[in-house]
C-alpha cells in the first residue's frame, strides 16, 4: 500500500474528525490542545506533508522559509486565512485550502444574535438578573431601540454577509451593503438590498453596521477613527469577521465619547487579548470568537479539511483552494 500522508494538526478537533484523520493519514494530533509556538510550527512544517492549522497559528513567511520540501499543503481548519501568508506559501509551491460554506449559517446566527441583543440591551438585562438586582418593572426601564424599519449596513456581502441579510430582512431591517462589487441583480432583488459603492456614504446613514468581510491588507482598520466618526451617534457596530478590520482602540474611544450607541463584538484585534477600554461598558457585548462554534459546524469544517487533503493526495485540485490574487 502507498505510504500514508503525514499530517500535523495544530489544535484539538471534534473527536469524529480526529478519528477519521487517524484512519486515513499518518496523523499527529495536539493532545493537550495548547496553541503552537513559533518553534512548534517550524518543527511541524519541517516534517509534515500536510499542515492543518487554525486561526491561532501564525504561518508567516518566517515559518514558511523553514518549511521542508515535503510540505505540499496547508489545509486550514477555518474560513479566514489571514493567519497564513498565502502569497509566500503559493510561491513556494504549497497549496492552501480553507473551509468556507459550512460555517456560514452559524456565524450569521451569532451576528444576528448580536444585532438583536445589543440594541435591545439583553446582556444588560441578563446582568441585572444574575446579580439579583431586579427590584421591579417600570415603564421607562431598560428601553432599547426597535429593529423593524431600521437600516442595516453590511460591510462585505459574501456568503456570511448574505446570510446575515436574509435573517435581518425577516426582522424588518432594510438591507444595505458595501462590497468590492455589487452582488447579482437576482440576489439584490431577493434581499431587497441597496448597494453602496461608497462605504463612507453608507456608514453615515446606517442604524446598525455589521462587519462581514475578510481581513486582508485592504480591510485592515477599515473601520478607523474617521469612519467611526461618520456613523450616527444612535448607531451600533457588530463584528463577527476579524478584529483587525476595526481599529479597536479607536472603537473604545468612540464608544466612550458617545460617538456611536453600542457594539457587539465576537472578534478582536489581538486575540485572546481584548482592549481593556472595551471591558465593563454597558452598551458593549463581547463574545470569545464563537461564530462557528457549533458541534455541527466544527465537525463539518473538519470533514471539509479531510476532503481537501484527500482530493489533493489523489492528485486533483482540492475544492477549497485559496487563490492569493482574489484575497
Ligand atoms: C474559527 C473563524 O473559530 O473560520 C474562521 O475564519 O474565524 C472560525 O470559524 C477559526 O478560525 C478556526 O480556525
Textual characterization of the structure:
- Residues 28-322 form the D-isomer specific 2-hydroxyacid dehydrogenase catalytic domain.
- Keywords: NAD, Oxidoreductase.
- Residues 112-291 form the D-isomer specific 2-hydroxyacid dehydrogenase NAD-binding domain.
- The chain has 327 residues and is of the alpha/beta class.
- The protein folds into two domains: 6-101 and 294-326, NAD(P)-binding Rossmann-like Domain (Rossmann fold); 104-286, Rossmann fold (3-Layer(aba) Sandwich), CATH 3.40.50.
- The chain is built from twelve helices and twelve strands.
- The chain has a seven-stranded parallel β-sheet.
- Strand 9 (208-211), helix 10 and strand 10 (236-239) form a beta-alpha-beta unit.
- Helix 1 (15-24) runs parallel beside helix 12 (295-313) and helix 5 (104-117) crosses helix 7 (159-170).
- 41% of the residues are buried.
- The model has no long low-confidence stretch (mean pLDDT 97).
- Residues 54-55, 77-80, 103, 289, 291-292 line the site of 2-keto-D-gluconic acid (8YV).
Q: Helix/strand-derived class?
A: alpha/beta
The kinds of small molecule bound in this structure are: 2-keto-D-gluconic acid
Q: What percentage of amino acids are in beta strands? A: 5-15%
CATH topology tier name of the largest domain: Rossmann fold
Radius of gyration: 21 Å
Task: Give the tally of β-strands.
Answer: 12
- Reading the helices and strands in chain order gives EHEHEHEHEHHEHEHEHEHEHEEH
CATH architecture of the largest domain: 3-Layer(aba) Sandwich
Overall mean pLDDT: 97
CATH superfamily of the largest domain: NAD(P)-binding Rossmann-like Domain
Number of domains: 2
- The outline comes out as globular
What proportion of the residues is helical, as a percent range?
A: 25-40%
Q: Strand arrangement, largest sheet?
A: 8-7-6-9-10-11-12
Question: What is the CA-CA span between the terminal residues?
Answer: 39 Å
Low-confidence stretches: none
Amino acid at each position: 500500500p502507498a505510504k500514508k500522508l503525514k499530517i500535523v494538526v495544530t489544535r484539538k478537533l471534534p473527536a469524529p474528525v480526529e478519528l477519521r484523520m487517524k484512519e486515513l493519514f499518518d496523523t499527529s494530533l495536539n493532545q493537550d490542545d495548547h496553541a503552537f509556538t513559533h518553534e512548534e510550527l517550524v518543527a511541524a512544517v519541517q516534517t509534515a506533508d500536510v499542515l492543518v492549522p487554525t486561526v491561532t497559528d501564525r504561518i508567516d513567511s518566517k515559518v514558511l522559509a523553514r518549511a521542508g520540501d515535503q510540505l505540499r499543503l496547508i489545509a486550514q481548519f477555518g474560513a479566514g486565512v489571514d493567519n497564513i501568508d498565502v502569497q509566500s506559501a503559493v510561491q513556494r509551491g504549497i497549496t492552501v485550502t480553507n473551509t468556507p460554506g459550512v460555517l456560514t449559517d452559524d456565524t450569521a446566527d451569532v451576528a444576528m444574535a448580536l444585532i438583536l441583543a445589543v440594541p435591545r440591551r439583553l446582556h444588560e438585562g441578563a446582568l441585572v438578573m444574575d446579580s439579583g438586582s431586579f427590584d421591579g418593572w417600570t415603564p421607562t426601564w431598560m428601553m432599547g431601540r426597535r429593529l423593524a424599519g431600521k437600516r442595516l449596513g453590511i460591510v462585505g456581502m459574501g456568503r456570511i454577509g448574505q446570510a446575515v441579510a436574509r435573517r435581518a430582512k425577516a426582522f424588518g431591517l432594510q438591507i444595505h451593503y458595501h462590497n468590492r462589487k455589487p452582488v447579482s441583480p437576482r440576489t439584490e432583488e431577493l434581499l431587497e438590498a441597496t448597494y453602496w459603492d461608497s462605504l463612507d456614504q453608507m456608514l453615515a446613514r446606517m442604524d446598525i453596521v455589521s462587519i462581514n468581510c475578510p481581513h486582508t491588507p485592504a480591510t485592515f482598520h477599515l473601520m478607523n477613527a474617521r469612519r467611526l466618526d461618520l456613523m450616527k451617534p444612535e448607531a451600533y457596530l457588530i463584528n463577527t469577521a476579524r478584529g483587525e478590520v476595526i481599529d479597536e482602540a479607536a472603537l473604545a474611544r468612540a464608544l466612550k465619547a458617545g460617538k456611536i450607541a453600542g457594539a457587539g463584538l465576537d472578534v478582536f484585534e489581538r486575540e485572546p487579548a481584548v482592549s481593556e477600554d472595551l471591558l465593563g461598558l454597558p452598551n458593549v457585548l463581547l463574545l470569545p470568537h464563537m461564530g462557528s462554534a457549533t458541534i455541527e459546524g466544527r465537525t463539518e469544517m473538519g470533514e471539509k479539511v479531510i476532503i481537501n487533503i484527500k482530493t489533493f493526495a489523489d492528485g486533483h485540485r482540492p475544492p477549497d483552494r485559496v487563490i492569493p490574487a482574489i484575497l
